[in-house]
Each structure stands twice: as structure tokens, then as C-alpha cells.
Amino acid sequence: MRILFVAAEAAPIAKVGGMGDVVGALPKVLKAMGHDVRVFMPYYGFLPDKIRIPKDSIWQGSAMFQDFEVYETKLPNSDVPLYLFGHPSFSPRRIYYGEDEDWRFTLFANGAVEFCWNYWKPEVVHCHDWHTGMIPVWLYEDPDIRTVFTIHNLAYQGPWRWRLEQITWCPWYMQGHNTMAAAVQFADLVTTVSPTYAEQIRTPAYGEQLEGLLSFIAGKTVGILNGIDRDSYNPATDRYIPQNFTAETIDDRKQNKIALQEELGLEVNSGAFLLGMVSRLVEQKGLDLVLQILDRFIAYSDAQFVVLGTGDRYYETQMWHLASRYPGRVSAYILHNDTLARRIYAGCDAFLMPSRFEPCGISQMMAMRYGCVPIVRRTGGLVDTVTHHDPANETGTGYCFDRYEPLDLYTCLVRAWEGYHFKEPWRKLQQRGMAQNFGWDKSAVEYVKAYRRIWGLPEEEPAEEKAAVVATPDDAKVESPEDKRPELVK
Ligand SMILES: Nc1ncnc2c1ncn2[C@@H]1O[C@H](COP(=O)(O)OP(=O)(O)O[C@H]2O[C@H](CO)[C@@H](O)[C@H](O)[C@H]2O)[C@@H](O)[C@H]1O
């Protein structure tokens, strides 16, 4: 199948959070399965520092009375074509924020549609979050292209109807409440990034005021669990951590802990319980709970705490204050740094993720991959990926609590801290986490089934079709018997 991913982020070159991880990894897996997958993303001002981009554009287009150019390169470490939407509004060295954010991402979405109509026509456009929300609206009437819209985070819904009307001139009935609402109404299929979150968004507690609409479209909504890039995030080969290790050589992991303590200016003590957090510092991530109890937990125990993240100024400042109150015990790094994130996963004993809501969560899976035990609130994808540790039966992969209450988090932390002192059960707990298969293989198959479903094709690819897709060269693929639809436009 011909599939175009359209998104604001793609790891490792443009990533703020988990959506970037998904867009950086899933296309590669689909490509390996034999599909013609390509990615469309803005040409941010910082990209030339990260990848080689040819000077000449491959196509010029125009949308919303603006001219733009599209450049072609490859998604790093793959042969997935990456198209970069070049317009001066994306030149600043940032991904989000700025007063023109609504406008420039709506332009980007419009540009993506022009690209599909005039340069490369996919069968499925897979859109991610509100930045691409107008694509399903514009493509709704197109008989040759179907749209899938993935909700990574319902908390960000894009410009509201009146603003959209100013930007796009699209009539009100094509817009719903805001961009996110428009997208879920008009997309052929809506996906969320975990089965539990797909259920939760139909309730007032998690629906972010769209629960009515999301209940209404429940029939075309499906929850498909995210995976992680297991090649890139592999403790056995990761070149950004001081000491590689596997589940069998997990005792070597201690060297990462000591190196991390040295690097962060924490007291070097391999016996102390080292707790880590790598996160966007926003309300979603349960930081108000953390700030309410961490002081006490640090005072009660010998624990150390490191946080790496950026986000709301309030939480950034509070984390700084915490670090200044406990020199040698607490360390706060208010920046975005992928390599430090890896060293935290590889060196900490436990990983804290007490989210208020969590569509899926990638960090807890990465933590488990690196033998770092997750401490999570049971919500959204955290329910689907972490199970509570039961030392008697030797089951479970982390520590969980249910209610969004400071006392519950505190109790959970104390239990984890106590559990840490029982070396053998703890080691087994780490190994069980490392043995989890959070690869993309299973989920990629689910996505392919979904793509086929919206085209009215049987979910399972017939064996001969599968073989044909894998065997045919790129150009021939569009001619395959499955493709009776109109020719590519070029
Ligand atoms: N300061 C920093 N430095 C380096 N790396 C940092 C960092 N801050 C965060 N990261 C990285 O960003 C990613 C965070 O991903 P998550 O899925 O946990 O959360 P996020 O809320 O961003 O994603 C949203 O989209 C994803 C993808 O669908 C959903 O899983 C999730 O629930 C939803 O909220 C991880 O790879 C983490 O290591």
C-alpha cells in the first residue's frame, strides 16, 4: 500500500515527545513489511544541522495564497523518503509555540494535501494530532485517498472554529469545534495509541470536552498500542551509555548508575535508590503530585531523584527549587537531551510516571527496556504496558497505583523503595521488564489491517498479494492488481 505519514515531529531529527518516536519508527517497520511508506514534515530551521538535505526542491506548490517548496531526503537510518515542507514560517529553530502556530500548521496541513493531489498520491494519509487535523476535512471528498487520524494527545486540539474559519475559509460545518474535532469527524478511521485510552476518551474525565463526539464516532475508533524502536533503544548496543548490558549481564548496569551519579553531581552511592523522570514538564505528567510528596520521600528515605525535562515555567522552576534544597540528592536538568535521557533510563533504579492521563506513554517502555523499574499511575496506556509487581508469584513489571492522590503516590514510592532492598526479587523484576516485547511488529500489523479495512479489503493480506508487494520494485507497486484506482499524479 502507498501510505503517507504527515506529522509535526519525527525522531531522531525533530522530536519533542512521544509522537516523534512513533513517526520516526513505525514507517520503517511498515516499509520493511513491503509497503510504500513516506513521511511529510515541516522543514524546521534546525534540520540542516541534523541531516543532509539537497539544496534543490523537488516540487513547488501553493496553498492559502502562500508559495512553498518540498525537499526530499531520507528518514535517518532507513530508506523511507522524507518530504520536507519548506516555508519561511517554519524557519525559526523551534517546533511548537509562537503566535503563528495555528496558522503555520494549518498551512502545513493544506500543503500536505496539495502535495498528495499534485505530486505523490497515497492510498492512505496517516495524520498525527491536531497539526494535521484539517487533512481529513480536505480529503473527505477524494475517492482515491482515505485518511487515518491518530490522537496522540487530546489535550492539544488546535485552533477553534472561528479562528479556523479566518485561516482556511472553510465553512463552519466542515470544522466542528476545533481542528481536532474536525479531524475525528472527517477521518475514515480514528486511532488512539492504546486500547485503554480509546475507551477513556469517551468519558468526561478524559474526553477533554470532546467525549460526546468521541462516543458518537466510537464505531470508527480503534486503540493500537505504541511500540518503541528496539534497535535504537537497545541497552546491549546503545553507544550513548557508558556500559552496555543485557538481562543476563544486568549486574553490569551498576556502572551506568555510578557514572550517572557522577555526571549529575549526585552523591556517588551505588546502594542508594535512584529515581528518574524524563518527561515534558506539563500537568498531564502528574507533576503536581510529585511536588507534593517528593520532599517527604527524600527526607524519609535515602533516595536520590533526577528529572530531565522542559515544559511549563512553573514546573521547571519548582524542579530547580527542589534540586537546590537537596544538593547531592536531587538533580534537575531543564533541557531536551536524548543522550542524557538514555543514560537516565540505563542508570536509574526506578522510573517515575504518575500521569494524570496517558494516551500510551513511550518512556515507561524505554525504561523497562533498560532495566529501570517503572512506577506508574494506572491510566491509559500505562494500564496496558505495566503490571503490578507481585514478588510472591514472581509476576509484574512495575509498581502501580490507581487514585490520583498524593498519598497513593507516596505509598507506592515507599513500596518500591522497600522492594529495591530485596536484591534478588528486584533483579527478577528488572529482567521481566527487559523481556517485554514492546517492538512495533504487532502494532504495525494492526495498522495495516486498519488501512485495509477502510479500503474495504480483507484485513489479512492474501499470501500471494503479500509476496507481490515484497517482491515488486517501487515503481511497479502502483501497478499491482490491488491498485485499480487512478494513476499516480506526477
Ligand atoms: N527533556 C527530554 N529530553 C530527552 N528526551 C525527552 C525529554 N522529554 C521527553 N523526552 C522523550 O520524549 C518521549 C516521551 O514520550 P511519551 O510517550 O512518554 O510522552 P508524550 O506525552 O511526549 O507523548 C504523547 O504521544 C505519545 C505517542 O503516541 C504517547 O505515548 C503519549 O502518551 C502522549 O502523551 C520519550 O522518548 C522521552 O524519552
Automatic annotation (TrEMBL):
Limits of the Glycosyl transferase family domain: 269-406
Keyword Oxidoreductase: no
Reactions performed catalytically: [(1->4)-alpha-D-glucosyl](n) + ADP-alpha-D-glucose = [(1->4)-alpha-D-glucosyl](n+1) + ADP + H(+)
Pfam assignment, any one: Glyco_transf_5
Ranges for region Disordered: 461-490
Biological pathway: Glycan biosynthesis; glycogen biosynthesis
The protein's name in its UniProt record: Glycogen synthase
Provenance organism: Thermocoleostomius sinensis A174
